[in-house]
Amino acid sequence: PQGSEEAKAFINAFLKRSMPKMKDEAIQDILTRKAVVLEHYSKKKAKQKRKKPKGFTAKQRRELRLFEIEPEQQRYTLFLPLHELWKQYIRDLCHGLKPDAQPHMIQGKLLKADLHGAIVTVTKSRCPSYVGITGIILQEFKHVFKIITKEDKLKVVPKLHNVFSLEIDGFVSYIYGSKFQLRASERSAKKFKLKGTIDL
Question: Which positions make up the signal peptide (predicted)?
Fold first, then answer.
């Protein structure tokens, strides 16, 4: 029955086992309020951090020769289909390159476009040996273009201090390499400002 001595003894023994750190006086104080909160701490499961897949380091990319083009593949004719794809991509991007199109709008789109497959010519350079190099862009890095020429020679041309021109459907665009030192992925989000004069 409620209030019997056996019940009190059972509750006291149960509370001592459940809350071993508590003194008898504190347990009696809890009983007078008729509210008992048992001390039970659930072990929190440690959250496992998701490991992000890491890409290759620059050293690993060099060792694996990921960006190297084999000598037998360094042929201009092999990349002509890539150039045709690039021309179609630019026509779609610029809505057909119509004669009444505004040049600065086309120029703005070309600055953000992917240039892999474009035929470019070095028109100005601080180094005279670069002037006149023409070919298809095979790879674009932050500071250089890799270009394959009609003579099947792979040229690495720095962007710094060079001016490049590219022509498509009669529209000629000039690229100042010194202001173009970005990766292709970064360039698509960059806002280019129009400037009156640009030094090499």
Answer: none
pLDDT tens digits, one per residue of 86-103: 999 988 888 777 766 777
Count of structural domains within the chain: 2
What's the gap between Cα 36 and its chain centre?
57
List the structure tokens of 67: 């960006």
Same structural domain for residues 84 and 133? Answer: yes
Q: Specify the amino acid at residue 30.
A: I
User: Residue 135 belongs to a domain with what CATH number?
Assistant: 2.30.30.210
Sequential DSSP letters for 88-141: HHHHHHTTT--TTS-HHHHHHHHHHS--TT-EEEEEEESSGGGTT-EEEEEEE-
Contact 94, 116 (CB under 8 A): no
